[in-house]
TrEMBL record:
Family per similarity comment: Belongs to the peptidase C40 family.
Chain ranges of the SLH domain: 26-86, 87-149
NlpC/P60 domain sequence ranges: 396-520
Keywords: Hydrolase, Protease, Thiol protease
Domain of life: Bacteria
Classification via Pfam families: NLPC_P60, SH3_16, SH3_YKFC_2nd, SLH
Name the record gives this protein: C40 family peptidase
Lineage, opening ranks: Bacteria, Bacillati, Bacillota, Bacilli, Bacillales
């Protein structure tokens, strides 16, 4: 009986290889798979064959590791096997009435996947090498081709299966690419390979972006991170105006927003927005009201809340993740703005701000491969960033380095609460420049005035922060500048101004000078 089913199984495979998917119009399959990507097309093909089910608003979990049961189910359903007719095997870890048993019984009978030491281990994660061996056996792939993966020697246990994948163009390795056989196989990759096997027109004709062994670790702890280029922190939910829509949508259009604001509309922001957070910044989730969430930016210190600087943001601007990047190197954006690129190194994915910090998965001569909050690995030109093994390893800057960096933003229009290179306020520009050089100073001027080392006015040096307060310098600090020498400071004065250098010893600045702090 098993032999007959095996023969029928192979006949189904032959029929599938002969089928083509011409004339199919592909719709967006899953909320975490953009409709214009190749993976979306591949998932649609799998759906047509019954290998996966598309459930409205249900993510595919592209970057999650695939389990043994999930792999078995995708194979059995794709091949349209009558899994209700298989004899029930005996496994210590799966009862006969377990709803997963029919799939496991079918994959066991076909000897594609069997247990080990009396267990099937349905929830165990497959490595990349294990998954490729299973797929090659399931679909009867064979063939020989030179393996260019530099981490797969000829005597590797997965060598034959990988050769078959390369010979059939399921894989098209790039020069000096690693296969990373011991890394987990993701659901996205497994589905992609399965679709390419059953639909030859999906197979790549040129090398694709390498698959890297990620330094990210899956954990049981949920983290929340900013998933747009920059998000405004409002002090109340639902406060944004119609003119603010480009800054509240997803993705945001910051340049369109700041360029559209009149001076009166910029002034209106004063006291209504408090700060901003950049792409990939970690936040703490404090509260949810409808389409808005109150979060706290962990890297922006305030003394009254241990979680960080609080504010309200659109829910769509925050994404939850279980990944930890503590073991990853980092890229700090040094260009005023930089584009993250898709795997073809040509298509622009997202423009991000100066001082954005992202984890690095791998690098080559031209690009850093950085992990994004919810869209996988993207390419970043090396000329747009500097890399470090950890934030704590960023070398301490000189005063001249800080000043030179801040001068790049001369004539940039002021933006209240701004911490991105689309617009800064007085303390925001200093927070960003110091942050990009490994020093996390407080976000607001009145907290910046309490850190570092106090400096007398007569002892000022370039690179010091100078502060101004109400009531002739004796009240609450309201402004900060970067001392550049000769009695001058670089600062962002107010909503109707731009970043500029001017004397700190004239008019209100002379009258309200309240002190200085040294962070270098």
């Amino acid at each position: 009986m098993c032999m007959i089913r095996r023969i029928l199984f192979q006949i189904v495979i032959i029929c599938i290889f002969m089928a083509t998917a011409t004339g199919v119009g592909y719709a967006n399959t899953f909320p975490d798979v953009p409709s214009d990507t190749k993976l979306s097309e591949e998932l649609n093909v799998l759906s047509d064959f019954g290998g996966i089910a598309i459930i409205p608003n249900e993510p595919f979990r592209v970057n999650d590791a695939i389990t043994r049961y999930e792999a078995a189910e995708m194979i059995v359903r794709t091949m349209q096997i009558d899994y209700e007719a298989s004899p029930i095997p005996t496994y210590e870890d799966i009862s006969e009435d377990d709803p997963r048993m029919p799939i496991i019984a079918a994959i066991t009978e076909l000897r594609i996947m069997t247990g080990f030491e009396g267990k099937f281990n349905p929830d165990a994660k497959l490595t990349r090498a294990q998954a490729v061996k299973i797929l090659a056996q399931a679909f009867g792939l064979s063939g020989q081709a030179p393996i260019t993966y530099k981490d797969i020697p000829k005597n590797h246990s997965g060598s034959n299966a990988i050769q078959a994948f390369v010979a059939n163009q399921i894989l098209f390795p790039a020069k000096n690419e690693k296969f990373n056989p011991n890394a987990v196989m993701t659901r996205g990759n497994f589905a992609s390979y399965t679709a390419r096997i059953i639909e030859p027109t999906l197979r790549p004709s040129e090398p694709e972006q390498p698959v890297f062994e990620s330094c990210a670790k899956d954990t049981n702890k949920k983290r929340y991170v900013v998933d747009v280029a920059v998000t405004n922190f409002w002090n109340k939910p639902n406060q944004a105006r119609a003119v603010d829509y480009p800054s509240t949508k997803d993705p945001v259009e910051m340049q369109k927003w700041v360029s559209s604001l009149s001076l009166s509309q910029k002034k209106w922001l004063v006291g209504r927005t408090d700060t901003q957070a950049l792409y990939g910044d970690e936040v703490a989730l404090l509260e949810t009201k409808g389409k808005w969430q109150r979060v706290a930016a962990k890297d922006q210190y305030v003394p009254y809340l241990k979680e960080g600087y609080p504010g309200w943001v659109p829910k769509t601007h925050i994404v939850a993740t279980n990944k930890n990047y503590d073991d990853c190197a980092i890229a700090i954006i040094t260009s005023q703005k930089a584009h993250l690129l898709e795997e073809d190194a040509k298509t622009k994915f997202l423009q991000i701000s100066y001082a954005t910090i992202l984890p690095i998965i791998e690098e080559d001569a031209k690009y850093y491969y950085v992990e994004t909050p919810s869209n996988g690995v993207k390419l970043l030109k090396k000329g747009d960033a500097k890399s470090y093994t950890a934030y704590s390893k960023v070398p301490k800057p000189t005063a001249q380095t800080i000043i030179k960096e801040a001068k790049r933003y001369l004539d940039l229009p002021y933006l209240w609460a701004g911490t991105s290179s689309w617009g800064y306020d007085c303390s925001g520009i200093l927070y960003a420049v110091f942050r990009s050089h490994g020093i996390m100073i407080p976000r607001d001027s009145f907290y910046q005035a309490t850190g570092g080392k106090a400096v007398a006015k007569k002892d000022l040096k370039p690179g010091d922060l100078v502060f101004f307060a109400y009531n002739g310098g004796k009240g609450k600090v309201y402004h900060v500048g970067l001392y550049v020498g000769e009695g001058k400071m670089l600062h962002a004065p107010h909503y109707a101004s731009k970043v500029k250098i001017e004397s700190m010893n004239n008019g209100a600045y002379k009258k309200n000078y309240s002190g200085a702090r040294r962070y270098l």
